[in-house]
User: Fold this.
Amino acid sequence: MIVVLGSLNVDLVARVPRLPAPGETLIASGFETLPGGKGANQALAARRAGAEVRLFGCVGRDALAPIALSLLSGAGVDCSGVAAVEASTGVALIEVAADGENTIAVASGANARTTAGQVPDGLLAAGTTVMLQLEIPLAEASALARRAAVRGARVVLNAAPAARLPADLLADVDVLVVNESEADALAREHGVDGLVSLCNAFAQAERTLVVTRGADGVLYTAQGETCARKAPVVHAIDTVGAGDAFAGALAAALDRGADLDRAISEGLAAGALACTRSGAQPAMPARDEIRTLADTL
Assistant:
């Protein structure tokens, strides 16, 4: 089973010909209101990849909350741990360019009320995978990682958006997933130069680090070595949610007992497939198509 403590948002998505320069106004060709949030996205991605998933987080008592929850329960994600609080539901303001690249600004709202205490101790045991991201308070993510590690659960942290990670949090994480910009920040923290050096440092410490690199694939550590894998070639129309698709499918594969190499393949497949569709949650691929594409990698 996968337990996710994370954010639930409503994505306000504007489609623009290119990403605007500072101070520039562009006319959007379209606009959508979609469910999102890294916690919800990864919970749905893991569920569609075949895992049993329970999601914990917060939404507001407002008209946006039903939108944030709209795709989760129908897909079989257990949302009984999502609390309604006196704050606005989180919102992400997203611009998507014609080439699929995007910019995102997040107003946390109710996500800032999320606490580690929402997750019962009974769910934290060997055989459980705990997924965390950083659109909730860092202290709460750290507190749940500590409780999970002590009880023998696997801890997967997608350290996004980038933040300075306490040493005790890193010590409790089994699999750390970051993108290139987040990896650069982590490398500066650890005093190493570049992504390969960062991966080598983690490999020497026998810790698992996965650096997602978009169309360039991933770097990751496995059995004390740094490995590189290419991403499938697809026609990308929207990269929003691709990282969450990768993380969710990776966690789902690990949770069912797949080895890291296979889990990376399924993560790459899920991330690539998500790029071929619009939106974040609506783009999350299903188990069969993930595994079919992964078999070719």
